[in-house]
Recover the amino acids of this structure.
């Protein structure tokens, strides 16, 4: 496992602090935002029904919202409407799920058109991240899904929803995704990133963003080892 060597405070700026449990309440989201500001994470990532949210104007915190989550089996029209509504309600970033079955069938033309529909509904400067559920795909399918995302205008490719039974992010998948998309597209490692060591390893493998639901515990891992910088 290669370590990026970043301090906890530096790692925090990679984190989308995530709360996507079905039972999450508006009070839970408000607490998430307060904790994210305290910890210095890059963003919070929430479900679309939680919008709009209240973020202090002076806070350096983005709001990400999932789309077509977690199955990816929504129609492109529904995903596009969901994304557009999220942007109207204050989302800075959209994390959409591809149709994983289409990828497994090799129908990457559909995968690309699905992503393109969301991109059209949520144009730049909204950041579009594309969840490919890498643990459910072969290496060749990961490459093809990432290529489709880039062709459709995505800003990021993302490993996982964190809800799929096959698992979450791996260093191998992150490195392959980085190799495929090149240096100008973001790579988000999400699903199972629970320790500061895992976070640093994902960054070293090529991740430029991390999806983390337990940010406080992850960042506290550095303090537990006596590290400075946080």
């Amino acid at each position: 496992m290669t370590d990026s060597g970043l301090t906890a405070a530096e790692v925090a700026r990679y984190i989308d602090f995530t709360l996507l449990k079905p039972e999450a309440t508006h009070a839970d989201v408000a607490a998430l935002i307060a904790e994210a500001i305290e910890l210095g994470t890059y963003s919070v990532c929430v479900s679309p029904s939680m919008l709009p949210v209240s973020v202090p104007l002076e806070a350096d915190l983005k709001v990400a919202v999932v789309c077509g989550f977690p199955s990816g089996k929504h129609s492109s029209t529904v995903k596009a409407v969901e994304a557009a509504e999220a942007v109207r309600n204050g989302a800075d970033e959209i994390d959409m799920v591809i149709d994983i079955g289409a990828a497994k069938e090799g129908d990457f033309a559909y995968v690309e058109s699905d992503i393109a529909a969301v991109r059209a509904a949520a144009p730049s400067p909204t950041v579009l991240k594309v969840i490919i559920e890498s643990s459910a795909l072969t290496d060749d399918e990961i490459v093809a899904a990432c290529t489709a995302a880039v062709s459709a205008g995505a800003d990021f490719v993302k490993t996982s929803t964190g809800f799929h039974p096959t698992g979450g992010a791996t260093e191998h998948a992150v490195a392959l995704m980085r190799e495929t998309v090149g240096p100008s597209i973001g790579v988000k490692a999400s699903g199972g990133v629970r320790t500061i060591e895992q976070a640093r390893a994902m960054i070293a493998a090529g991740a430029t963003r991390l999806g983390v639901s337990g940010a406080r515990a992850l960042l506290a891992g550095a303090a537990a080892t006596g590290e400075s910088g946080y």
In short: Residues 26-39 form the longest helix (14 residues).
